[in-house]
Amino acid sequence: MNESEHGHRGVDPADLSEQDLLRELETIHRSRHDTLLYGSAAALEAHNVRMADLEAEYLRRHPDREVAAGRTRSGARDRSQ
């Protein structure tokens, strides 16, 4: 997704260095709660699009990332027993 598709601004996540991508992800996740509670509908939509784009790029770069057992369905079931 890019600015022309949604009218939103921001560097294409594919063009970000690894360090910049991680910093952008940290920033957008920190601001999520305030945007949800207090942002306009347009601000929330822009936030949704940007967050999805950044997360998709992270997953594209790290398809084999480590997944903690407790963050899976089976791991969650094991905790409840």
What does this structure look like?
This protein is mainly alpha-helical and 81 residues long. It has helices at residues 3-6, 18-38, 41-61, 73-80. The longest helix is centred in the middle third of the chain and has 21 residues, at 18-38. The chain starts with a helix and ends with a helix. The mean pLDDT is 87.
Question: How are the elements arranged and paired?
Answer:
Blueprint (H helix, E strand, L loop, with lengths): L2 H4 L11 H21 L2 H21 L11 H8 L1
Helix pairs in contact: 2-3
How far apart the termini lie comes to 43 Å
User: Low-confidence spans: pLDDT under 50, at least 5 residues?
Assistant: none
Relative helix content: 55-70%
| Main pleated sheet | none
Number of helical stretches of at least 4 residues:
4
Beta fraction: under 5%
